[in-house]
Specification:
mainly beta; eight-stranded antiparallel β-sheet; binds magnesium ion
Length: 270
Amino acid sequence: MRRLVLLATVLVMGATLVTATGGAQELPVGYDDTPQLPGLPWRVHDADRPQPEVVTPGPSFSEGARAPSDAVVLFDGQDLSAWRKPDGSVPGWKVEHGYIEVVAGTGPIRTREIFGDFQLHLEWATPHDVVSNSQGRGNSGVFYHGLYEVQLLDSFENPTYPDGQAGALYGQTPPLVNASRPPGAWQTYDILFSGPRFDGDRLVRPASVTVLHNGVALHHRKELIGGTVHRRVGSYEPHDERGFIQLQDHGNPMRFRNIWIRELGGYDEP
Ligand code: MG
């Protein structure tokens, strides 16, 4: 059974290495065969990129915050009615004790509604029991349009490549600091996202994001290079201004609670 679980993890992650005896190997903490990031002295997933300073967060101002009256509540502890699988079917993730838990191997979930530029609040916890390392430890992610990932990872005393740690714009930009709480603790993300704008096939404004992790700023209006990819440099493909929010199944039983979103408008006024 353990081997079957490990095999399933490999299929989901496409990254975990498994020995002939079924034991998980140490995962890499970086790559030296990836392309250079544009305008930077670092490769994609560069282990030598400076590690963000560790900051111990205080109580998060937004933990447990009730959604504002104009927010769309995406999860209030009850059910997954605001979510679906990419094929439109009912998500395989479970709801218990007021939180969502990822059921590994059932795939990502995405919102039924679509949103333009937004303010998103979500609370998440990595597994209390540490069973792997680097990208195998408490990995998930929140994707806008299913294309642009703000990484979710257990980055508490867990070395990995800086552009893949908690709060990283995955494969592009490390967080300004590491404000992670220990495994199993609830953590908050408050994200302001402005999507890209296209004129036909031409990019006229890149996406940008502001991220607060446990009340600590990790990014402020940071522009994205393009869509999120692994071991490559992302690029932009034209898409609609509104899209779904997606949460990643990366093979770890991550937990989520208190998720709400407010769509923002007005920034395209002349
Ligand atoms: Mg991820």
